[in-house]
């Protein structure tokens, strides 16, 4: 409901406004620094770092679609569905997001790797023109950004607002990795 209330705002603009709001609430907050505790990151507020703009809802098993299984990181189900030809690896949801977009958004590196092995289009663009590389960069998953680049992702593809993947992040390591691959292409 909260996402729908934003109307026609793009995910990129929503992310920027979210970051600005958090910085206003906690001026000392820096999206580049999180306190690591095991596998869980914490913000200055003490809560977990959220990698996605999308809220989860409980969905009954019989009501799930392939995107729900992708969001859950159910690699076995997604792999079997694609290999059995029940689902095209490049199928998109109502917003034009492919399974690869969702896996990158959620930080599911192993699923990203599997989707790429199953011939997912690494440069597929969603309804806003964003690629999986935009999603991985915006969510600051350096390991996934690197995997996508090694798999042929084009860091020079711009979204509908004219933004490159490197402009979707403030993470210096990601920006550096993207710029290294962009050198000579623009």
From TrEMBL:
Pfam families: Ank_2 (PF12796)
This protein's record includes keyword Magnesium: no
Protein name according to UniProt: Acyl-CoA-binding domain-containing protein 6
Ranges for domain ACB: 1-31
Gene that produces this protein: Acbd6
Organism lineage: Eukaryota, Metazoa, Chordata, Craniata, Vertebrata
Superkingdom of this protein's organism: Eukaryota
Originating species: Pluvianellus socialis
Molecular-function annotations in GO: fatty-acyl-CoA binding
This protein's UniProt keywords: ANK repeat, Lipid-binding, Repeat
ANK repeat boundaries on the chain: 95-127, 128-160
């Amino acid at each position: 409901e909260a996402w729908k209330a934003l109307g026609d705002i793009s995910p990129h603009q929503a992310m920027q406004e979210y970051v600005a709001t958090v910085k206003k609430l906690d001026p000392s907050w820096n999206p580049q620094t999180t306190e690591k505790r095991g596998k869980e990151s914490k913000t200055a507020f003490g809560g977990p770092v959220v990698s996605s703009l999308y809220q989860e809802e409980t969905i009954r098993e019989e009501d799930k679609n392939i995107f729900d299984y992708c969001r859950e990181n159910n690699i076995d189900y997604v792999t079997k569905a694609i290999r059995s030809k029940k689902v095209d690896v490049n199928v998109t949801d109502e917003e034009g997001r492919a399974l690869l977009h969702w896996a990158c958004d959620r930080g599911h590196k192993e699923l990203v790797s599997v989707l790429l092995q199953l011939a997912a289009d690494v440069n597929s663009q969603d309804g806003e023109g964003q690629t999986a590389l935009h999603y991985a960069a915006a969510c600051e998953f350096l390991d996934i950004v690197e995997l996508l680049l090694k798999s042929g992702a084009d860091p020079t593809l711009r979204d509908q607002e004219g933004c490159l993947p490197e402009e979707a992040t403030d993470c210096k390591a990601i920006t550096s990795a993207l710029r290294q691959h962009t050198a000579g292409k623009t």
